[in-house]
Amino acid sequence: MGTITDVAGIQVGHAENEEALTGCTVVVADGGATVGVDVRGAAPGTRETDLARPGTLVERADAVLLTGGSAFGLDAAGGVMRRLRERGQGFPTGAGPVPIVPGAVIYDLEIGEAIWPDAEMGYRACAAASDAAVAQGNIGAGSGATVGKILGIGQATKSGLGSSSIGVAGFTIGALVVVNALGDVVRPGDGQIVAGARDPRTNEYVGTPRVILAGGSARAGNTTLGVVATDAGLTSQDMQYLARIAHDGLARTIHPVHTMADGDTIFSLATGTEPIDRRLMVALGVAAVAAVEEAVLAAVRFAEPAGGLPAGRYSEE
After folding, report:
1. Domain encompassing residue 221
2. Is residue 246 in a domain?
3. What is the C-alpha separation between 234 and 204, in angstroms, rounded?
4. Among candidates 148, 234, 231, which has minimal Cα distance to 193?
């Protein structure tokens, strides 16, 4: 498994405030990419998602912003736009290029300090974007990510940002995911919890679905965000399909997912320009699910303790 920057034309940059435990991550499509989106959670914080759906005038995005800071963090998109305009990238208009930057936020205000990414941080993240292997864990938008919050933030587990890539049929599918879920992260094969809500007495994982079914109440403040990218030449409708099916990767690794208290959102980007054999869409969809699945597990594998919370207990065994 590699990272999303294995996809030709995709660059990633991070910026964060390590003391406040917040930050943002920018996935840049050098030259733009056909974009799609699928919002599944009932508590999203998003920007430009209507534009990322089929049937709109503008079908390409220049970058996707994933950020902490709840709705406040959407301000970081202004800095991303400024940096992209400086390099001449954006939708052409009579007044110059207008960069198209869809984005989404996680709620991380209860860990670290109640500080959020701003335009300056977004600018720095975009300026740092490169096609090098993506740094993972407590970085960028994953700086304040946590999972398993049904018993409160004090009994949660530190999560982070993960990435992966898979080769399929001569193309590459990459995924980048920021895991900040209400639910627990589990191994798909056996359902073993590797990060989640912890019993205050024993520190053992309690199983979030079980707590909820026993009457535990949840509040908003949770969201898993992702970007899937490919170098295949796909249409706007194709990208909607990839974003939609990629959520299966979340469903296989996060229990529960897509709740009323989560804002789960996945964006999709295609940098290729040559149309593909339509029969390959099945393989690309399967690869997107697998890439998201691995990226979620990587977010736990690379996370480190922070904000008084332990990291997960990821193991391949």
Report:
1. 4-301
2. yes
3. 45
4. 148
